[in-house]
Amino acid sequence: MPPLLQSRHLATEIPGPGSTQLARRRAMAVPRGVGSTLPVYALRAGGGIVEDVDGNRLIDLGSGIAVTTVGNAAPRVVEAVQQQVAEFTHTCFMVTPYEGYVAVAEALNRITPGEFEKRSVLLNSGAEALENAVKIARSYTGKTAVAAFDHGYHGRTNLTMALTAKSMPYKSGFGPFAPDIYRAPASYPYRDGLIDKELGSDGERAAERAIGVLENQIGAHNLAALVIEPIQGEGGFIVPAPGFLPALLAWCRDNDVVFIADEVQTGFARTGAMFACDREGPTGLAPDLICTAKGIGGGLPLAAVSGRADIMDAPHVSGLGGTFGGNPVACAAALGALAAVEADDLVGRARQMERLIFERLGRLQADDDRIGDVRGRGAMIAVELVQPDTNAPDPALTAALAAACHRAGVIVLTCGTFGNVVRLLPPLTISDALLSEGLDVLAGELAKL
Ligand SMILES: *Cc1c(COP(=O)(O)O)cnc(C)c1O
Hints:
single chain, alpha/beta, 7-stranded mixed sheet, 5-stranded antiparallel sheet, about 40% helix, binds pyridoxal-5'-phosphate
């Protein structure tokens, strides 16, 4: 095949005939419950482009939901995977272990925030990482209650549905949910600030509100863990007000509550730091446990719980594990992806992209009062679309804008509790030219709506 060109190109309408035919086969083979954002079927991808089966080349501002942070089919990942897949594909770490798993655990222990001794357990998906973090926290504390936050998203298994805030589409009709899960108010600077300016900017006050709910409705002596995304992903790329997370962490430390940071979406260079917690306050924030997945495997399924050795070692021997957890091919991919992040300074690249995206979207916001807020960090930035007079969420405009971008050959995703957020998660290997072109398309399509 000729090399994948790094340019947007529309060979057919979106979707083209090849994708339309695959959609017909899919309708007879795959349940409708599995949704897809775009109607096109991928053939290959890399750099900042996804090419479909009809020869359309789309600018990738989604990274398969924050997964291909190091780029799709990244050369270091491809090479590591090809070598490993030819050596062995699986023995099960619980049967005959292998070095790759240990090396990934060592790497995660090194790069995750916190100077203390750490351990990491490897799993298959973000949801499975959250499930295990809760198991570990309960085992360590001897307590059972777990608190999550408004706007939080943690996965689609039974326990993680319970942790997730939003009913549609994640929970509705799928209950009953795991017991002893509670919800506390989050810090949502834009929407909090519309009601109470100080609450929107003072994270300590927002934390007081949350802690009040925790103490009143659960009681610290019952609470095993607090589960929180340092920047809420599906909930709308919500960056909490400064001071919110440190105040919660301090309260957890005082009350023997395990602080679990869900960095499944924010982790691994995405936010212009190796982890979003690293950019909290002047010195960063060191959670007790960190859940990772999405970006860490360079596109292969891999997840982890990393954290304080004393907590991680609480579960009894053989209490943790799983058949595929830490699969050797996924581990090789992760080591290749981490080598790419470190050798190519992708953390620095995410900061460059942050400046470029904020500059462009800032100009757009100044010209268009339907953009209520522009927020995020690194290569994880979103616009919240509202009705100008009331600031009420505008999910219809959001859906129309995303669909228009897709027809124009730009992959963007939406999110938000109110469905009114367009989020950008470009791979860190995209060129400035493609990134700018993607943002120009977004601006141009918004102007037409
Ligand atoms: C995607 C996501 C999950 C779930 O990960 P899966 O691999 O889909 O199970 C959990 N938490 C956050 C913050 C996520 O973005």
